[in-house]
Amino acid sequence: MINPQSQQVWAAPRRQLLRWTISYAPWNSPKTVVTEKTIAASQREALQSAMKLGVPLSAKRDWQFGWQKIDKDYRQQFLLALSFNVQSGMSAGKALEEVIQSERGHVRQVMEPALAIIKAGGEFSDAIDGLAMFDDATLSILRAGEKLGAMKEAMASAIAHIKKTNHSMKLMIGALMVIIADIVVSSITVFGVQFYQLPQLRTEGITSKDPVVVANFASNLDMAFLLNGILTAFTVVLSIVVTVVVMSYSNKEMREFRQKVDYALHQMPILRDLLRHTAISSTMSICGALLSGGVMLNKALVIVRGSTMSPIVSGYWQRAESHLEHGESVNIALQDENVLERSECLILASHADQMQLAQAMLAISERRDEMAERASSKFGKFAFWTGLLYSGCGVLIALWVSYIQYQAVMASTTSIGG
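The line above is the sequence of Type II secretion system protein; the predicted structure tokens follow.
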């Protein structure tokens, strides 16, 4: 018998809450096995909850909430509903509870972990984290808003961040789809040549008895194997890289690895400008909106610094916060020509009050939006020409193989005729 009173209670919320089926023997009927559902982050926590009811026998994971699909537009509307409730005077936790209880269907199932945390007396930030609906930047904004007592402003900033993120993703995905579609179609030809046509040619060989013709055929075949092999290896490596990047962004447990991926992406010449302009535009817009809403700069910086996954831009806001904490002026704290352009530093330095500083940041945000559009256009052109080059290489190799086949046929015909 396990005494439930002697067991440690695991109350700390975890990221990625799961639904479990637990089986236990009740204390008053140890020979009876009862099966129930519970919500926990790990098997250990699921067993811990069973200890309160009886002797735990097993805990089997049913399914993971994070895999439930939630539309991006819905996430924005969800935050907007929360914002309306908070503006009406509700606490953030109560507002979240009201919104969740109004949901039905699979969306309600996704939100069950958050509702369980709220009803157990947990904090809003832990509950919103349990939804597994928002990225780390959005969660950081909401956590900071709760900590600073500025939930109205934080929710407005989170909504603005999601809008910016969705717009940026559309720009990048639109450009990427061009190259991905082209590469997928071309890769079918590449793999077909590598694993079917070339091996078949090598197996069938050539019937000519002329050593020069045979040597020329073998040389051409080896060259085709080499060139198409390089293209095949490139395709495999590219597929692995894309898969790893997608997994790092979709799996919150890979946060440290995602940071490395973010750093690597920000070092790529083609993507670097697009990512930097987008991050600066988003954070400047959020900070400007917070300042316009009356939030003090030091509090706004706490919220803004976590609103981007860009290591360069996040570092800029962290340094600005550090400068202010050490007593330096706002003008000095916001100056960094390694991140901002000289003209942008001049605009920030020329403000006379908080409202002018907010206007300056919003102006920088609009300018960076335009620069992001141009960078996206460049990236789209790069994607187009890269896909065209890949397709061209695949077509040339296919033609080369066709030429080798033609050689074999002509040599065989000549041999028969001779």
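Note on the example: Residues 354-417 form the longest helix (64 residues). Residues 80 and 159 are 7 Å apart (CA to CA).
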